[in-house]
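Q: Sequence in, structure out?
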Amino acid sequence: MQNGTRLAAVDLGSNSFRLEIGRYEFGHIQRVEYLKETVRQGNGLDEDRNLTLEAMERGWACLARFGERLAGFPNAQVRAVATQTLREARNRDEFLSRGREVLGYPIDVVSGPEEARLIYQGVARLLPQSDERRLVVDIGGRSTELILGQQFTPNAVASYRVGSVAWSQRYFAKGEFTLQAFLAAEIAAKAVLDEAQGTFRPEAWDVAYGSSGTAGAVGDILAAAGGPAGLITREGLNWLQDKVLRAQSADRLRMDGLKEERRAVIGGGISVLRAVFDLLDIDQMQVAQGALRQGALYDLLDREQPGTDLRTTTVNGLMHRFGVDMEHAERVAHTACALFDQAAPAGSERASRKLDWAARLHEIGCIVSHSDHHRHGAYILDNTDAAGFALPELHRLGVLVLGQRGKVRKLEVDLEDPIFVLQLLSLRLAVALCHARRNPDSKGLTLRRGDRRFHISARTGWSAAYPQSAHLLREETQAWQKTPWELVAELP
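A: Exactly. Output:
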């Protein structure tokens, strides 16, 4: 990546949406612009876990403003990441469909562990180089992430469904602050976070850091009251809770350092932070400058550097974990990508890389059942934590794995995307050609794309030399019947 390249990250949090624009300079990203809007989308989940129309419209309006600012940025230089509220929302596809349109870029809904990994990257990149063992705590609107790491490597990540917006809604719904409400909120937070005590025990880390909204807000208030800048202590938290209790309600709460948009969720944030301090025996916590959006920026940078895409490492790890036949996976991946590259338009390198991952994972379900391994493989990918991947990316890999065999028309997938259709066809053809679990003779074998039609052709005599492979390719033409696409096999 050239010096001066601009990169952008959009963080769709439960309380706020943020836009960070940076400039790449000699391996680092310097901030160019930062925009934040308090959207409070986490408040918009109803009892059925659907986002209300009002909450969606607030989000769309913000994304439209961000989209105007990002106009002209190449897709490869923008990463939009959505977190817990959209992980929970049953109608998230409705929000995301319109959201992508007004923003102008894809929006990745990430898993809790993946959110934690990105948070750690953002925190670590903005800290001085050190061998200290770090505990990073990020209390968001509807989830709290805990990470243990050293330098740029997260060694343990976890995400818990407890946050400032959710706890403020549940325990301070009318904006009233009472000691009983604080006690109930803190006990409930400890119940959710209880299992963290084993992994994130005090002897596992040297320095605790707090990132994102709640830690930043508490740190600002304590500093404005005369405390050390960027430091949260137990004494400071006790003093802050006492001040909040004296105010009795959010409407009456006035404190130096407390921003207006934080008043409504400060009760929930303090409760969760106190629970974390008590459970993990924290005496003091430093406020970190980095957070999820910076992590998304550096992750975007890593994806563009040859050999540094974490997703490739993750795929290799999944292959080992589920006992995949490495040699055969490599064979199928090579064949599938060679076919894809013949028929793909220029600029399809990313799609080819994702096809390579799907091909390497196409037998991941064999650990459960060989006969239905495509179904089990798709299930595994839809339900695994895979570092570097967004949930929609994993689902798309799962659909490719599921679609490696059987009638294409039975797949519950949109077949209007020609790149996806070519990925699917290339994988199916590769699986057929590699049926004998040895390298196929692909000399003279070509795949071409026309208007809603694909042609697979071979050199004269190929079908006589490889009758079973020719039979499987002719059968493949039948699998595409009653779909918007046609496959023609010319196998002399």
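The radius of gyration is 26 Å.
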